Amino acid sequence: MKTQEKSFDGIKMSGFMALLILLILAGSAIFLLSLSQSWSVVAGILCGICAIIMLRGFMIIEPNNSRVLTFFGRYVGTVLTNGFYWVNPFFQKSKVTLRILNLDIEPIKVNDKVGNPVMIGAVVVWRIKDTYKASFDISGNIREFVQIQSDAALRQVAGMYAYDTNETTDKVTLRSDESGEVTKRLETELNSRLDIAGIEIVEARINYLAYASEIASVMLRRQQADAIIAARERIVEGAVSMVHLALEKLKKDGVVELDEERKAAMVSNLLVVLCADESAQPVVNTGTLYQ
Question: DSSP readout, the chain?
């Protein structure tokens, strides 16, 4: 079973108290060396050596930082509380930040669920929650590890959804994620990949999404066509409603009695006027529909 992070429970002295002892040793070394006697010179040298060795034990820990301590290759604990401390000078002290870090994943080309190439980028907010795993369970730079795993997770999640609802019957797509399902899936995938390194994902979200350049113009024309069709459907629906309202109003108020042929002509004329792209030119008809 692997060792987990543990708080250092060994000898940890206040740095100010250790500094006072260091000054006493340095003063004693100077005083003993000044006596110019054989025993005092030896004692002075020993005090000086102790003072020099003590210098290696000082450390300053800022808020949201830590020190991972090892003793000749053996993990002894992590100092998590901030302040000025002195520990065994033979400890190897590695700084590990616990602050929240930001990673901007540059847009990458992936295939969505239906096979369309898209460019997608994301922002990942993360922090280290286990200093032991972050220090000893992975090799190399931690930020580089997060970058590679985030790239892989983004590729996998992007392949689970279509770019837009025009290409699938699914309600959730990369472009329309009102429920936050894509974001949650991305965070879950990232946490599963980065947990082995003692890293926690605070937030992950898509910040760039577009079709790849080779199909962008085609998809733009398709979107324009879809928009035109949707607009036409809305115009025709409104026009039919207005024609129906006009016929019902004329019949209710008794303005004029129209037979089926005249109703058809009126419906045709109104639809032409209401659905035309340009303003209709009025034509005065002085004739009759009947021969």
Answer: -PPPP-B--S--EEHHHHHHHHHHHHHHHHHHHHT--HHHHHHHHHHHHHHHHHHTTEEEE-TTEEEEEEETTEEEEEE-S-EEEE--TTSEEEEEE-S-EEEEEEEEEEE-TTS-EEEEEEEEEEEES-HHHHHHTS-S-HHHHHHHHHHHHHHHHHTTS-SSGGG-S-S--SS--TT-HHHHHHHHHHHHHHGGGTEEEEEEEEEEEEE-HHHHHHHHHHHHHHHHHHHHHHHHHHHHHHHHHHHHHHHHHTS----HHHHHHHHHHHHHHHH-SSPPPP----S-S--
pTM for the whole thing? 0.69
Per-residue model confidence (pLDDT) at position 1: 43
DSSP 27-59: HHHHHHHHT--HHHHHHHHHHHHHHHHHHTTEE
Name the residue with tokens 């279509």. 162
**Exposure class string for 177-208: b at 16+ Cβ within 10 A, else e:** beeeebbebbbebbeebbeebbbebeebebee
pLDDT, tens digit, for every residue of 133-162? 999 988 878 999 999 999 999 999 999 988
Q: In what order do the strands lie in the sheet with 199-211?
A: 101-111, 117-128, 199-211
Residue range 243-286, pLDDT digits in tens: 778 777 777 776 667 667 777 777 777 767 766 666 666 665 55
Rounded Cα distance between 36 and 44, Å, is 10
Residue 71: partners with Cβ closer than 8 Å, 6 or more residues away: 88, 90, 91, 92
